[in-house]
Amino acid sequence: MNDCELNIQNLTKCFEKGTANEKVALDHLNLMVPAGQFVTVLGTNGSGKSTLFNAILGKLRPDEGTILLGGEDITRQKDYKRALNIGCLYQNPLRGTAPDMTIEENLALAYTRKSSRSFFAVNRRDSAYFRELLATLNMGL
Amino acid sequence: MVLINMLISAISQGLLYAPMALGVFVTFKILKTPDLTVDGSFVVGMTVCAAVTIAGYPVLALFAALAAGAIAGLCTALLQTRLKIEPILCGILVATGLYTVNYAVLGGQSNLYLQRQVMNAAGYPVNQAADTVYKSFGQLLNPLGGQWKNTNTQVMLLTLGIVLVLVVLLGIFFFTRPGMAIRGTGDNEEMVRSSSINADLTRTAGIMLANALVAFSGGLLCQQQRYADLNCGSGMLVMGLASVIIGQVLGGNRGLIVGLISAAGGSILYRIVLQLAYSIDLPSYSVKLLSTLIVIVALGVPLLKKHGFKLPGGKKA
Amino acid sequence: MKTRMGLLSGGQRQAASLLMATIAKPRLLLLDEHTAALDPGAADKVMELTKRITAEQGITTLMVTHDMDYALSIGTRTIMLSAGKVVMDISGEEREQMTSGHLAELFYTARQKKLGQ
User: Fold this and answer.
1) Average pLDDT taken over every residue of chain B
2) SS3 category, B275
């Protein structure tokens, strides 16, 4: 399956290797996800879900295996670099947003990672776009 | 007249220390990480400025102070981001190391007057006051006479101009993408990383900016008082913090622009308070204890409020 | 828009986070129990938005959940991890036949096995 958007091969991560507390968090895990597919993931605590996510996000380095995203090997890419192409939401709703900045400023920082950049982080055109997007959420924003 | 002169003098002092307060504002309120480099970077600004001023370049000297402060900040930032040392310890380490640097910049002495030796007509060496930005500005205003000839007024006006420019530039910068990224780093570093921004870099930039401002303040003070002194830096952080906190009490939590103006205003108000303290015959060495008390009260009150303590006077805090 | 993010409710902040995570059209979206900490009303709303935005943009998505109903009703494929491996991977008809009860059974068996180790 070469047209896989996400292609994880042989991913292995072992914590505290060689000690009595050795814990295999990822055991030669393979996962291929075609572009546009929505996969739900189940697993008990300690099944390796968080380790898998952290490895994809670049927050920890796997011992073995590769992660391809859109055909590009991102296994050893820095977390902030791969964030260009990966979005993530956590259980804690406070983790994804900066509380002391306005909604608009938060959106602008997230948006300008790819869009063309103007001198000020927020410009009028983007601002109108954000307003439109927020309205579609229908969350009173 | 005496009173007005005292007020002008206090405002001048407040303005000279305002860039330092802005620097402390950047670390404490924007990056939300205490940075104790301040005590060292203030003096490094002073000593570097003194050295370059004596060499005959008073304007360049202020930029040299900025650069020296930025380098000091870079050291602290590298310790924080690369070696993952506790931010507080990083600042202490750099400030301590800077003492030696500052000593060396002053040519192995603990203070230096802004003067240089020139040969007089008879061929004897005599000391001549080095040019400073304040001296040049004074020469510009002196022909106007009256209050314009007052040195304190001159210092106040020039420093006010400089501080206004700084506040405007900072106000603009923090709304550009890099500036906003620095604000985000203090607010929620994870969010910044998720936005594909290298948060180590933005944190480094923020700490460098803060210390550049602090050192610039040291440079201004050096040119105004016409000497540099190694012991000027101790307790600087607490004074900066006191200014920021006084500013916050007045300006409230109303966004970045108000915050910047409040920090600079807080510095002025703080000096006026000190001036008042002196005028009721508190000795000048009481400054530091006074600053400490201001900070403790300002930091402590919100916590006491949370726990429902009652302040004297029966009013529930 | 000019409101400080910190003044919003949990549901609003999570909706804003969702917007921020998808606003730059990423290739991959990871959702780690992103509605578990919200009150039921907000959770449903955020889940609806998640479905709509991922469908509109066609983003490849992995969503961790502990809710068996969500696991089967959202998306087109369900996988189960245990001891660092994919132990179940269903889609299409097999997934349609699956009930949340049966899935829960599989889930608890996996857990028992792990505890027994």
Assistant:
1) 90
2) helix
Q: What is the CA radius of gyration of chain A?
A: 18
B196 CB neighbours in chain C (<8 A) are 24
| Domain-located, residue B189 | yes
Closest CA to C95 of A37, B190, B28: A37
Q: pTM for the complete prediction?
A: 0.91
In a domain, B317, yes or no: no
Tell me which residues of chain A, numbers 51 to 110, contact chain B at a CB-CB cutoff of 8 Å. 78-81, 83-84, 87-88, 95-101, 105-106, 108-110
Q: Given phi > 0 = left and psi -120 to 50 = alpha, else beta, which region is C27?
A: alpha
Segment 87-126 of chain A within 8 Å of chain C by CB: 87-104, 106-107, 109-111, 113-115
pLDDT tens-digit series, residues C20-77: 999 999 999 999 999 999 999 999 999 999 999 999 999 999 999 998 888 999 999 9
Q: Burial code of C62-72, b = ≥16 C-beta within 10 A, e = fewer?
A: bbbbebbebbb
Q: How far apart are CA B36 and CA B95, in angstroms?
A: 7
| Average pLDDT score over residue span B81-94 | 94
For chain A, the chains sharing at least 3 beta-carbon pairs closer than 8 angstroms are B, C
Alpha helices by DSSP H, listed for B82-150, are 87-105, 133-141
Please give the pLDDT value at position B304: 72
Domains and CATH numbers, chain A: 6-82 (3.40.50.300), 93-135 (no CATH)
The answer to whether A69 faces chain C, any CB pair under 8 Å, is yes
Binary contact (B196, A83; C-beta < 8 A) = yes
| A74 contacts on B by Cβ (under 8 Å) | none
Residue recorded with tokens 């308070």: B273
Q: Please report, for residues B21, B212, C3, the alpha-carbon distance to residue B217 in angstroms, rounded to integers and kept in the order given.
A: 9, 9, 34
Do residues B90 and B40 touch, judged by C-beta distance below 8 A? no
* Closest CA relative to residue C61, chosen from B281, A35, B172, A141: A35
Q: Is-contact A99 C6, C-beta < 8 A?
A: yes
Q: C90 CA to chain B: closest CA distance, Å?
A: 31
Q: Is residue B266 part of a domain?
A: yes
Q: CB-hemisphere CA count at 13 Å for A121? A: 27
Task: Nearest chain C residue to B255 by CA: give it.
Answer: C4
**Interchain CB distance below 8 Å, B191 and C21:** no
Partner-chain residue, chosen from A87, A101, A122, that has the shortest CB–CB distance to B184: A101
| Residue B185: CATH number of its domain | 1.10.3470
pLDDT tops 50 at residue A122: yes
Cα B300–Cα B303–Cα B306 angle in degrees, nearest 5: 150
In this structure, is residue B316 part of a structural domain? Answer: no
Number of structural domains in chain B: 1
Query: What chain B residue is nearest to C23 in terms of C-alpha separation?
Result: B195
Q: Which residues of B touch C (CB under 8 A)?
A: 191, 194-196
Domain membership of residue B187 as a residue range: 2-310
CA A38-A40-A43 angle, 5° bins: 155
Minimal C-alpha gap between A25 and chain C (Å): 5
